Amino acid sequence: MPPQRHRVIFLVGFMGAGKTSVGRMLAERLHWRFVDLDDLVVAREGRSIAHIFEQAGESGFRSRESAALRHLLNELKASGEAVVALGGGALSQTENRVAIEQSGSAKIFLDAPVEELFRRCASQDVTRPLRKDLTSFRELYLSRLPHYSNGALRIDTAHKSVTQVCNEVFSLLESGKLGLKESD
Known about the structure:
Helices cover 54% and strands 12% of the residues. By secondary structure, the chain is an alpha/beta fold. A 5-stranded parallel β-sheet has the order 2-3-1-4-5.
């Protein structure tokens, strides 16, 4: 029987960093599954993130996000290789950080200057309940920064195309710097 392949890359970072765009392209290039944790929460709940925030608040959303992540991590143990884009606040929950750390999966922190992240979010047709003014956006970014950078390889996405960032991640994977190996 051939060895099972359990390799997962988590893309982490603030809103607007490019986790979903890069994740889709990377997964396609690797022929791996792509999962966006926010999309998983929406599918499980049958309503948008904005509606979850409206009806259950941020804490209600975070508990649903943690439940979706636990379910996904259990599923990934048996389903091979995947690239996972985490929501910008997923690592703000201790239980999520611990679960990802215990999974042994690679983490890549996609980052850019706050002003660029803010501009990217403003140009997207996506409702982001926590994106308000630049000052509060910066404060939220700074509060989450330690969680993103802890144990993750950082890639600066400023002024780079999705393809360029994807190529950087792919190079890290090929070089062995992500520590992903096939398991028996």
